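Lab manual, section 2.4: Encoding a predicted structure.

Procedure: take the sequence of the chain (335 residues), apply the prediction step described in section 2.3, and record the output as structure tokens. A sample record is shown.
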Amino acid sequence: MNASRLLLLSAHEPVVRPDTDLGEVVRDLLAALARMPGCEVVHHEVQKLSDVERAVRVFRPDAVFNACETLYGESKNEPAVPLLLERLGVAFTGSPAQTLRSCLAKGEATALLRAAGVPVPGSMCLASADASVGLDAALSYPVIVKPEREDGSVGIGVDSVVHDDEGLRRAVRAITEGLGQPALVQTYVPGREIAVALVGYPEPRVLPPGEITFDAETFEGRARVLTYASKWDEASPDYGATRSVGAAASPPLLSRLAAVARRAFDAVGMRDYGRVDLRLDETGKPFVIDVNPNCDVSTGGGFAKAAARAGLSYDAVVGLIATSALARAPAGQGA
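Recorded output:
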């Protein structure tokens, strides 16, 4: 039997930020894929869409392992590579282009979740911060203000949770003027933050949830949210003040978290793998605060930790993702 041909694609960005540097992820993936039995793996860095098409035409893969989270230096171009692969008829790992597009627009993703019956916080989008800006009748303070079209906690800081109209206008202005995009305003849910990862195709497996813990001293007197600094700025006191650990929960809560995460996964059309972030209110009710169809799949990321809690090695979970795409490959595609 001929070996399956896998093409690992990653984006070459001449200038990278900590949140867009995928060098470690690509190294981890390439090592794991190289150990897959019965697979031939080639890695290509791409700078533009024509590079993607050229790599596909030259290597003729059975499937592509898509590790492109940016293109042309912009995270908003994340759907571009999957869209091209769809047009070329090439199987690839991860979610379809439409899902990536929807999840990059947090307001649209929230609307899809709400329509599917997934519990989400009250939300509104604001395009500017003039003197008349205030909350919709369905929302009440405190609220959290996020960029509408970012991930990786870009644009989220210590002033993102606000308690009055003045703070709202200030936080919205920082996004609309500072980042040049609308702001998503959501009811702030102050309870535990839980992350639920899923993997597999066509039926995803819900992995044991993780929980974000917050250092009590660092977060004294302020909202416990994952800021950009806590994830990426090693010079900040926030960095290292949050940790991802296994979530301790009763069987009924675990069952509820799994059901909500699975419904969210399906509602936005995620495929192969992804992560659903939730917050618990004071009654223990879970609310989905974000969906991430292209979550960190490095050996040290929360996704790999969730897999380990399920008894899956890193090689095994990467293999599951790769074989999910190979299962969708048209017969004779790599020949």
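Check your result against the sample. The CA atoms of residues 245 and 258 lie 17 Å apart.
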